[in-house]
């Protein structure tokens, strides 16, 4: 055993393909439990998910099946649950957790990303991951029994309802759907975007963020989160929202109107006016789960590119596509960027484990900015290698690219995260100014000692 309690790096358990891309520092931090789970997830995705990709699609295409969860998904979820592969994402400080750290789960999530729906077979998919963590952290014991436990058991499904069409939702203080208290109920009126489709009748409830005190002088206390059962009268789905042309059935996204929707006051989470407290607590691991999976998705796209490069049926001017210098460099650049992205994500997960989610917000923002942009570039290059065929359903590349592009806005636009990182960096300027002023003072002392003329530098007022 190593000093951290994990297996030694020369242990055969770490020599399988499941661990091939992980840096040594990450392997050194893996517990025996994590090593087993990572290998189990790898075997599950390789043996159970990838071979069934086309079957899953076929089950969605049958008459009346488009907005029904395929029977294959239910079958796989039961098998994964029996194998102990459910809810792996929930960090080990929750009593409901299976025991993995954020770093350890990152290694699992990358493997899940190789198939778009693989995470769902293990109950590790969005929006359930964020919703489960939110409910586990902020709900009362009674609420946990009613709403959280069915999600953990995989017998219910939920969605998160925050974005709105009439305001700039990147500034969540502008969220305007109204919630007013009437006796033992809240009455909700307004419009929402996103949130999984009501057309899938397995969807059980939304966690909705609304404005309950619009006149409160403290704008951070105007909003409340409440659990809204999907069967509540007054909720209308206007239409499915396609993402770059894909409907993402059977979950999808929707546009909704709430008219006189009455919800029991006991469904409020944590308390009225505490939505931002909850939202900040939710912006932890769940915010980079997409990024973790994107690394795995890009690895699969990269593998397809390598296959194309060595396809004997595709030899323009008598040479393998991979023998042209431009494509050799293209493959190299993809490999470099993929490995960079993995390090960014693993670092963010490790910071959350060691310093906490709040301290890790900068690393989380870095992941959110860098990884989806990297993914769209890499998948785009892979499509280029396939030529016209790479834009069609002959490969999964167009769907991969669309998912990566969606993730760039799924948890807030790049600009919002860059702004956060930039503000934090600006706070460091004074410390650097003082350091460079000390360099200058010391330089003048040394120049006088050596009898040299002092040269002035004009890169900032350091006096």
TrEMBL record:
InterPro entries: Acyl-CoA_dehydrogenase, Acyl-CoA_Oxase/DH_mid-dom_sf, AcylCo_DH-like_C, AcylCo_DH/oxidase_C, AcylCoA_DH/ox_N, AcylCoA_DH/ox_N_sf, AcylCoA_DH/oxidase_NM_dom_sf. Its cofactor is FAD. It comes from the Eukaryota. Residues 68-154 form the Acyl-CoA dehydrogenase/oxidase N-terminal domain. GO terms for biological process: fatty acid beta-oxidation using acyl-CoA dehydrogenase. It holds the Pfam family Acyl-CoA_dh_1. Keywords: FAD, Flavoprotein, Oxidoreductase. One of its GO terms (molecular function) is acyl-CoA dehydrogenase activity. Residues 276-424 form the Acyl-CoA dehydrogenase/oxidase C-terminal domain. One of its GO terms (cellular component) is cytoplasm. Belongs to the acyl-CoA dehydrogenase family. This is Acyl-CoA dehydrogenase family member 10. The lineage of its organism: Eukaryota, Fungi, Dikarya, Ascomycota, Pezizomycotina.
């Amino acid at each position: 055993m190593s000093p951290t309690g994990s297996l030694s790096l020369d242990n055969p358990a770490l020599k399988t393909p499941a661990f091939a891309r992980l840096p040594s520092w990450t392997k050194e931090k893996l517990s025996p439990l994590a090593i087993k789970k990572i290998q189990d997830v790898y075997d599950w995705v390789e043996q159970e998910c990838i071979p069934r990709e086309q079957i899953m699609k076929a089950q969605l295409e049958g008459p009346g099946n488009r907005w029904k969860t395929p029977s294959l998904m239910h079958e796989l979820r039961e098998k994964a649950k029996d194998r102990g592969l459910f809810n792996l994402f929930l960090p080990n400080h929750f009593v409901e957790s299976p025991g993995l750290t954020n770093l350890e789960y990152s290694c699992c999530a990358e493997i899940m990303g190789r198939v778009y729906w693989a995470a769902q077979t293990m109950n590790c998919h969005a929006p359930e991951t964020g919703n489960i963590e939110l409910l586990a952290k902020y709900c009362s014991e009674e609420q946990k029994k009613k709403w959280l436990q069915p999600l953990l058991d995989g017998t219910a499904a939920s969605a998160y309802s925050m974005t709105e069409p009439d305001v700039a939702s990147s500034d969540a203080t502008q969220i305007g759907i109204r919630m007013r208290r009437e006796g033992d109920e809240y009455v909700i009126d307004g419009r929402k975007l996103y949130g999984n489709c009501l057309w899938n009748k397995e969807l059980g409830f939304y966690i909705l963020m609304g404005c309950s005190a619009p006149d409160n002088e403290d704008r951070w206390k105007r909003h409340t989160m409440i659990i809204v059962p999907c069967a509540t009268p007054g909720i209308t789905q206007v239409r499915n929202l396609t993402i770059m042309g894909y409907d993402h059935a059977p979950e999808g996204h929707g546009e909704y109107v709430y008219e006189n929707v009455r919800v029991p006051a006991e469904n409020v989470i944590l308390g009225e006016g505490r939505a931002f407290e909850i939202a900040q607590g939710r912006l932890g691991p769940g915010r980079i789960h997409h990024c973790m999976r994107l690394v795995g998705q890009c690895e699969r796209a990269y593998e397809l590119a390598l296959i194309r490069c060595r396809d004997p049926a595709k030899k323009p001017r008598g040479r393998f596509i991979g023998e042209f210098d431009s494509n050799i460099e293209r493959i190299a650049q993809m490999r470099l960027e993929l490995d960079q992205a993995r390090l960014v994500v693993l670092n963010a997960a490790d910071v959350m484990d060691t310093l906490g989610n709040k301290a890790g917000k900068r690393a989380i923002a870095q992941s959110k900015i860098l990884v989806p942009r990297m993914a769209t570039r890499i998948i785009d290059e892979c499509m280029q290698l396939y030529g016209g065929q790479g834009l069609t359903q002959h490969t999964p590349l167009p769907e991969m690219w669309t998912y990566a592009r969606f993730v760039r806005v799924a948890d807030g636009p790049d600009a919002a995260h860059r702004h956060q990182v930039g503000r934090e960096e600006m706070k460091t300027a004074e410390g650097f100014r003082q350091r460079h002023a000390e360099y200058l003072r010391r330089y003048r002392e040394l120049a006088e000692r050596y009898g040299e003329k002092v040269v002035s530098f004009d890169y900032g007022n350091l006096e």
